[in-house]
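Entry 14. Ran structure prediction on the chain below.
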Amino acid sequence: MNRSSPVVVCVTGKKKSGKTTTTVGLVEELVRRGHRVMTAKHGHGFALDTEGTDSWRHRHEGGAHRVVLAGPREMAVVGEWGSSGEAGLEELVERFLADAEIVVAEGFKSSSAPKIEVFRSSAHEAPLYGSDPRYDATCLAILTDVADFPAHVPVMDVNDPARFRRLADLVESLRAGGDA
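Output, C-alpha coordinates:
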Protein backbone atom coordinates (compact mmCIF):
# COMPACT_ATOMS: atom_id res chain seq x y z
CA MET A 1 0.00 0.00 0.00
CA ASN A 2 1.48 3.34 -1.04
CA ARG A 3 0.50 5.86 1.60
CA SER A 4 1.13 9.56 1.12
CA SER A 5 2.78 11.63 3.82
CA PRO A 6 0.47 13.46 6.19
CA VAL A 7 -0.17 17.17 5.86
CA VAL A 8 1.60 18.90 8.74
CA VAL A 9 0.63 22.30 10.14
CA CYS A 10 2.06 24.02 13.22
CA VAL A 11 0.20 26.21 15.68
CA THR A 12 2.73 28.76 16.90
CA GLY A 13 2.83 31.79 19.14
CA LYS A 14 4.35 33.00 22.34
CA LYS A 15 3.46 31.71 25.82
CA LYS A 16 -0.13 32.18 26.93
CA SER A 17 -1.28 33.25 23.46
CA GLY A 18 -3.86 30.49 23.00
CA LYS A 19 -1.87 27.84 21.12
CA THR A 20 -3.35 24.90 23.01
CA THR A 21 -6.93 26.17 22.66
CA THR A 22 -6.34 26.65 18.94
CA THR A 23 -4.71 23.24 18.53
CA VAL A 24 -7.55 21.47 20.35
CA GLY A 25 -10.25 23.38 18.44
CA LEU A 26 -8.63 22.73 15.06
CA VAL A 27 -8.08 19.04 15.81
CA GLU A 28 -11.67 18.68 17.00
CA GLU A 29 -12.99 20.24 13.78
CA LEU A 30 -10.76 18.12 11.54
CA VAL A 31 -11.76 14.93 13.40
CA ARG A 32 -15.42 15.96 13.13
CA ARG A 33 -14.87 16.15 9.36
CA GLY A 34 -13.64 12.55 9.35
CA HIS A 35 -9.86 13.01 9.18
CA ARG A 36 -7.32 10.82 10.97
CA VAL A 37 -5.52 13.53 12.97
CA MET A 38 -2.48 13.19 15.19
CA THR A 39 -0.60 15.84 17.13
CA ALA A 40 2.88 16.69 18.29
CA LYS A 41 3.69 19.12 21.10
CA HIS A 42 7.02 20.84 21.53
CA GLY A 43 7.88 21.75 25.08
CA HIS A 44 10.90 22.76 27.06
CA GLY A 45 10.68 19.81 29.40
CA PHE A 46 8.04 17.50 30.76
CA ALA A 47 7.72 14.52 33.07
CA LEU A 48 6.07 11.38 31.75
CA ASP A 49 7.99 8.80 33.74
CA THR A 50 6.71 8.15 37.23
CA GLU A 51 9.35 6.98 39.66
CA GLY A 52 8.86 3.40 40.76
CA THR A 53 6.75 2.25 37.82
CA ASP A 54 8.02 -0.69 35.77
CA SER A 55 8.75 1.52 32.76
CA TRP A 56 10.63 4.03 34.94
CA ARG A 57 12.69 1.17 36.35
CA HIS A 58 13.46 -0.16 32.84
CA ARG A 59 14.84 3.24 31.87
CA HIS A 60 16.35 4.63 35.06
CA GLU A 61 17.51 1.50 36.84
CA GLY A 62 18.12 -0.76 33.86
CA GLY A 63 19.46 1.97 31.57
CA ALA A 64 17.24 1.34 28.53
CA HIS A 65 17.72 4.05 25.91
CA ARG A 66 14.05 3.98 24.93
CA VAL A 67 10.97 2.31 26.42
CA VAL A 68 7.71 1.63 24.57
CA LEU A 69 4.66 1.31 26.80
CA ALA A 70 1.89 -0.66 25.11
CA GLY A 71 -1.56 -1.55 26.31
CA PRO A 72 -4.85 -2.58 24.76
CA ARG A 73 -5.88 1.05 24.15
CA GLU A 74 -2.81 3.27 24.62
CA MET A 75 0.87 3.49 23.85
CA ALA A 76 3.75 5.81 24.59
CA VAL A 77 7.44 6.04 23.85
CA VAL A 78 9.76 7.36 26.56
CA GLY A 79 13.46 7.88 26.19
CA GLU A 80 16.30 10.21 25.40
CA TRP A 81 17.41 11.59 22.06
CA GLY A 82 20.99 10.48 22.47
CA SER A 83 24.07 12.14 21.05
CA SER A 84 22.31 13.33 17.87
CA GLY A 85 20.08 15.66 19.90
CA GLU A 86 16.42 16.51 19.57
CA ALA A 87 14.65 15.33 16.42
CA GLY A 88 12.93 17.89 14.24
CA LEU A 89 9.22 17.83 13.51
CA GLU A 90 9.71 16.19 10.11
CA GLU A 91 11.59 13.26 11.68
CA LEU A 92 9.01 12.91 14.47
CA VAL A 93 6.22 12.73 11.90
CA GLU A 94 8.13 10.19 9.81
CA ARG A 95 9.00 7.98 12.79
CA PHE A 96 5.82 8.16 14.88
CA LEU A 97 2.94 9.85 13.02
CA ALA A 98 3.28 8.67 9.40
CA ASP A 99 -0.11 6.95 9.42
CA ALA A 100 -1.95 10.23 10.07
CA GLU A 101 -3.80 12.13 7.36
CA ILE A 102 -3.10 15.41 9.15
CA VAL A 103 -0.65 16.28 11.92
CA VAL A 104 -1.29 19.41 13.96
CA ALA A 105 1.86 20.35 15.83
CA GLU A 106 1.84 22.81 18.71
CA GLY A 107 5.04 24.81 18.69
CA PHE A 108 7.90 23.90 16.34
CA LYS A 109 8.17 27.49 15.09
CA SER A 110 11.50 26.70 13.36
CA SER A 111 9.95 23.95 11.26
CA SER A 112 9.43 24.49 7.54
CA ALA A 113 5.81 23.30 7.90
CA PRO A 114 2.96 25.79 7.34
CA LYS A 115 2.10 27.75 10.47
CA ILE A 116 -0.94 29.25 12.13
CA GLU A 117 0.24 31.94 14.51
CA VAL A 118 -1.82 32.93 17.53
CA PHE A 119 -1.00 36.48 18.62
CA ARG A 120 -2.72 38.36 21.43
CA SER A 121 -1.67 41.97 21.83
CA SER A 122 -3.05 41.78 25.35
CA ALA A 123 -0.35 39.20 26.20
CA HIS A 124 2.62 40.23 24.05
CA GLU A 125 4.04 43.36 22.44
CA ALA A 126 4.87 41.82 19.08
CA PRO A 127 4.00 38.69 17.09
CA LEU A 128 6.48 36.23 15.65
CA TYR A 129 5.18 37.23 12.22
CA GLY A 130 7.19 40.10 10.79
CA SER A 131 10.39 39.23 12.66
CA ASP A 132 11.90 36.78 10.16
CA PRO A 133 11.13 36.48 6.42
CA ARG A 134 11.70 32.68 6.58
CA TYR A 135 9.03 32.38 9.29
CA ASP A 136 6.67 34.71 7.43
CA ALA A 137 7.02 32.61 4.27
CA THR A 138 5.61 29.59 6.13
CA CYS A 139 2.62 31.37 7.67
CA LEU A 140 -0.73 29.97 6.62
CA ALA A 141 -2.90 32.22 8.80
CA ILE A 142 -2.85 34.48 11.84
CA LEU A 143 -5.34 34.48 14.70
CA THR A 144 -5.18 37.76 16.56
CA ASP A 145 -7.04 40.31 18.66
CA VAL A 146 -5.57 43.13 16.52
CA ALA A 147 -8.04 44.67 14.08
CA ASP A 148 -6.46 45.42 10.69
CA PHE A 149 -3.39 43.23 11.36
CA PRO A 150 -1.17 43.61 8.26
CA ALA A 151 -0.26 40.24 6.74
CA HIS A 152 0.00 38.46 3.40
CA VAL A 153 -2.10 35.57 4.77
CA PRO A 154 -5.65 35.28 6.10
CA VAL A 155 -6.06 37.09 9.42
CA MET A 156 -8.83 35.89 11.74
CA ASP A 157 -10.26 37.17 14.98
CA VAL A 158 -8.85 34.99 17.75
CA ASN A 159 -12.30 35.03 19.39
CA ASP A 160 -14.39 34.33 16.27
CA PRO A 161 -16.58 31.27 16.94
CA ALA A 162 -16.06 30.18 13.29
CA ARG A 163 -12.24 30.33 13.44
CA PHE A 164 -11.72 26.58 13.77
CA ARG A 165 -13.95 25.85 10.77
CA ARG A 166 -12.07 28.45 8.73
CA LEU A 167 -8.69 27.06 9.82
CA ALA A 168 -9.82 23.52 8.98
CA ASP A 169 -10.78 24.73 5.49
CA LEU A 170 -7.23 26.07 5.05
CA VAL A 171 -5.68 22.82 6.27
CA GLU A 172 -7.92 20.80 3.96
CA SER A 173 -6.82 23.00 1.06
CA LEU A 174 -3.21 22.02 1.86
CA ARG A 175 -4.23 18.36 1.90
CA ALA A 176 -5.87 18.77 -1.48
CA GLY A 177 -2.68 20.34 -2.79
CA GLY A 178 -4.30 23.74 -3.21
CA ASP A 179 -2.86 27.07 -2.28
CA ALA A 180 -4.06 28.60 0.95
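The beta strands are 7-12, 37-41, 66-70, 75-79, 102-106, 115-119, 139-144, 155-157. Will compare against last week's run tomorrow.
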